[in-house]
Automatic annotation (TrEMBL):
Signal peptide: none annotated. GO terms for biological process: response to arsenic-containing substance. Residues 2-138 form the Phosphotyrosine protein phosphatase I domain. Keywords: Arsenical resistance. InterPro entries: Ptyr_pPase, Ptyr_pPase_sf. It holds the Pfam family LMWPc. This is Protein-tyrosine phosphatase, low molecular weight.
Length: 140
């Protein structure tokens, strides 16, 4: 079974959403993880917009790319989901893998009131869903 790792800086939103979508879309065809360079707590906006889609990510635990590496985990695909303009900050997971980059804005950088930030998080969620759908078809 191919192993897929989604990576972003904090493993608090984008990589968590991508992980949830690939699990939903691909079922048991892939083993899917997500991790970050500097993991923090889950972004409440990400949890809220994913719940709107019927996907509960509230119990997912942000984890460190370094911890996965120390555990000896290897992946067939490592997919970074950091913003294009901040790509230099995207962590790199070592090993023999196919590396892909799917850039998305960071929900943590959204500004405005709750409704404005929620609308931005929905936009990012929908972009991730669309990209992961294409990815699932390509990897199948």
């Amino acid at each position: 079974m191919p192993r897929v790792l989604f990576v972003c800086t904090h493993n608090s939103a984008r990589s968590q959403m991508a992980q949830a979508y690939l699990r939903q879309m691909a079922g048991q065809r892939f083993q899917v993880d997500s991790a970050g360079l500097e993991p923090t707590q889950l972004n409440p906006l990400a949890v809220e917009v994913m719940a709107e889609e019927g996907l509960d990510i509230s119990e997912q635990r942000p984890q460190s790319v370094f911890e996965l590496y120390r555990q000896g985990n290897l992946y067939d695909y490592v997919i970074t989901v950091c913003e294009s303009e901040r790509e230099s900050l995207c962590p790199v997971f070592p090993g023999i893998t196919k590396r892909l980059h799917l850039p998305f804005d960071d929900p943590a950088q959204l500004t405005g009131g709750h409704d404005e930030r929620l609308a931005g998080a929905r936009r990012i969620r929908d972009q991730i869903k669309q990209a992961v759908g294409r990815l699932a078809e390509e990897l199948a």
